Amino acid sequence: MTNKRNALLPSLREACSNCSLKELCLPIGLSDTEMALLDDVIRQGHKLKRGDYLFRSGDAFKSLFAVRTGFFKTSVSSQDGREQVTGFHMSGELMGLDGIADSVYGCDAMALEDSEVCELPFGRMESLGREIPSLQHHFFRLMSREIVHDQGLMLLLGNMKAEERLAAFLLNLSQRLAYRGFAANDFILRMSREQIGSFLGLKLETVSRTLSKFHQQGWISVDHKHIQLLAVSELKALISPCAHS
Amino acid sequence: MTNKRNALLPSLREACSNCSLKELCLPIGLSDTEMALLDDVIRQGHKLKRGDYLFRSGDAFKSLFAVRTGFFKTSVSSQDGREQVTGFHMSGELMGLDGIADSVYGCDAMALEDSEVCELPFGRMESLGREIPSLQHHFFRLMSREIVHDQGLMLLLGNMKAEERLAAFLLNLSQRLAYRGFAANDFILRMSREQIGSFLGLKLETVSRTLSKFHQQGWISVDHKHIQLLAVSELKALISPCAHS
DNA sequence: CGGGTCTTTGAAGATAGTCAATTTAGGTGG
DNA sequence: CCACCTAAATTGACTATCTTCAAAGACCCG
Lengths: 245, 245
Prior knowledge:
The structure is a homodimer. The first copy, chain A, has helices at 22-25, 32-41, 122-131, 133-159, 162-179, 193-200, 204-217, 232-239, and strands at 43-48, 53-55, 63-69, 72-77, 83-89, 94-95, 108-111, 115-121, 186-188, 220-223, 226-229. Chain A is of the alpha+beta class. Chain A folds into two domains: 16-156, Jelly Rolls; 161-239, Winged helix-like DNA-binding domain superfamily/Winged helix DNA-binding domain (Arc Repressor Mutant, subunit A), CATH 1.10.10.10. Chain A has a four-stranded antiparallel beta sheet with strand order 1-8-3-6. Chain A has a four-stranded antiparallel beta sheet with strand order 2-7-4-5. Chain A has a three-stranded antiparallel beta sheet with strand order 9-11-10. In chain A, α3 (122-131) crosses α4 and α5 crosses α8 (232-239). The radius of gyration of chain A is 19 Å and the shape is globular. Chain A starts with 21 loop residues before the first helix and ends in a 6-residue tail after the last helix. The model of chain A is unreliable at 1-7 (pLDDT under 50). Chain A binds a DNA duplex through residues 161-162, 192-194, 202-209, 211-212, 224.
């Protein structure tokens, strides 16, 4: 991985101030000065190939990472080897927040396709937060959002049936893709059935069967990793039986 | 709830600097000056009766709360009314971190016995964090710890069988009680079987049956809410089959 | 002491898991 | 470019686990 960065002539492409994702990553309303401080701290251009680990559980924590392009999964494992996928991460999303607690990453982060990330050295971000209150607040909000998100997953894992979990999963993916300007109802799954299963607390066979069931109902089209949502309202009805739309 | 506080003569009992829980709540190594600043911001003496809500999902978020005495549960609910208990909280533990994201609490927090909490107005804590770096770092660590904790729960909910969940639950309770100077192997459950079930993604009958099974095996003693752990190593073996001790 | 809640326990049923066989896809190298 | 090979996915049959439904018993608070 060559270091293309040049302190005197930073490429325009390689700066937060110029990044198309900054609305996703950063608090709105930073001044030019503040943005320049950020550009100075954040390191861009880390490239990973499919299957590469960005970090592993137990690695020394120094930085957070934001997905610039590509797709990641994070997962935790028990002593006896059982793996739980804790999340899938696409552009603009942050990974590594679990590492702050003990200065050691608490999960594995793996690229599911060739990807690029920005590195946010946490110590320097923390200092910067003291100078830029809105940045500090932004980080608290990001971490809080992660907690809220995890609570939603616990609800899913603790209370929902296989069909409900799959529907929630597909709708969540759809929504996040749409928010990034991709088609909401026609996408390629970046992960295997097994990884979906691990995320949803199901076995891969159950994932496959449930997708087939949705397909037979005409609610979605499944062509291997290519998914089309054909009846979004039916899927939504699965999750919250009352609220029709 | 009467306000016993007096700015000129703050009771010694009612101050972080004098609190027996400060090692649990606060970063170590605060100077007297810094401690005084904290004492000025943190409001103590909120009392709740069993069954009272500290906050409800959707309430405007202004403060975090630390348990001083008593016992709480937090829970989230889906639109159609399914409840997932997301945690049980005892002295020194913080609640409300999920509220930062959207300035609205994301869960309900309810006292399971008569309790007392300290209120940490978040805005003022945030400012104080900018002046006391170790305090800022402490808050990041607290939030990160919550994320790590939630990941562990996802592993439990996604991968474990009923017996493993119960064993993990009992051992976790035991450990936290021991850390606070209570008996590790002899305690009273503050929550109902249904609440345990909701937390562990099980039905109350399954919780009851599994406790009975442990009892029959001689691993624990169950007398309603009074639990004694008789064979901790057996319970540990349930969770991580490899690691004997 | 009494009503209501919580708990225990049993029996039957449903959901998802396990095991296994087959098909398909995608990557590699001739 | 094609053939092969491995990994992933689908599907079926069977089983285990947990849930549901039901009834009886125990406790606690007023």
